[in-house]
Amino acid sequence: MFDVDSAQLMTSGRSTLAAVAKKLNQTAARIQLKAYTSQSTLTSVSAQRRLSLKRAMAVRQHLTTEFGISSSRIDVRVLGTVEDSGPGDRVDIVMTSS
Question: Which of 7, 21, 37, 87 makes the best surface tag, with the fewest CB within 10 Å?
Fold first, then answer.
């Protein structure tokens, strides 16, 4: 969804968000955005968390401005450096009940 050390959505990320928005418009569900970074050039935990926050906010803004999803339906979790086996430069989108 993001290039290394970037908070700008890639084209593929925008396509993914269009599909998420379509599902959200069909239900009253909420989503949780879990934002991560990889351990690239950002060496401080603070810098990694700031980049994670920027990524989550970019996703949130795209969903609200492009698709009219209410920001009150979107929760943000800033997690910094990824600790699982998935790619680091990402924002996971988890649907939760309303």
Answer: 87
3 secondary structure, DSSP code: -
DSSP state letter for 2 = B
Q: Quick count: other Cβ atoms within 10 Å of Cβ 91? A: 26
Would you say the C-alpha torsion 74, 77, 82, 83 has a positive or negative sign? negative
Q: Which two tokens stand for residue 40?
A: 């690239």
The residues pairing with 81 across neighbouring beta strands, listed in sequence order, are 37
Residue 81 — φ and ψ, nearest 5°?
-65, 135
Q: What is the pLDDT of residues 41-69, one digit of tens each?
A: 667 888 888 888 999 999 999 999 999 99
Q: What is the pTM of this model?
A: 0.87
Spatial contact of 78 and 29, defined as CB atoms under 8 Å apart:
no
Tokens of 64: 């609200």
Query: Using CA atoms, how far apart are residues 61 and 95, in angstroms rounded to an integer?
Result: 17
